[in-house]
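Quick one:
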Amino acid sequence: MAKRLFDIVLASLGVVLILPLLAVLALWIKLDSPGPVFFRQERVGRHGVPFRIHKLRSMRVAQDAAAPQVTVGDDVRITRAGRFIRRHRLDELPQLIDVLAGSMSLVGPRPEVPRYVAQYPADLRDKVLSVRPGITDPASLEFLDEAAMLAAAVDPEREYVEAVLPVKLRLAAQYVDQASLRRDVQVLLATLRLLVFGRKPVMPGAGHR
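Output:
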């Protein structure tokens, strides 16, 4: 209950503060390329319950249902506005709405699409999905260069599943084991430091690769 109250208070404040910025970004997205302002995608939430995550759209509207579900380097699908939005991680801001709706938390394991959750080992799946997914978490801070790393791979999706996802799951399980409001505050402060100063923070006990 304390964590939920913490989420509601900070997310409510955050929504009020970012409304002017969201209005400007929404206009830019609409002028830059055809399509909706928001990108919504099914993700797997707490206890395996699916939900629709909200992001600012940073890519052209996909025409191919089989399009890759990982983004690599200078992906040709990324729009001009999208490059700026992704560089400064502004695409995640609408997830404050998902926090208020109860689908997400400010801090928690990042939610994955069903096709990747299906590959979780059973023991880790139950643990990672026992908490609400978050906007940020230690794994997000660890894999800041994920898109560039995947761009260098021969098969980006295979690289993600075989090399990146197992580490993310290990960090997610470690977060669940150490979950506390103090830990959440540490992760939020590290994330804000990244957004403001652009430097990769070092998380206490993050278990780096």
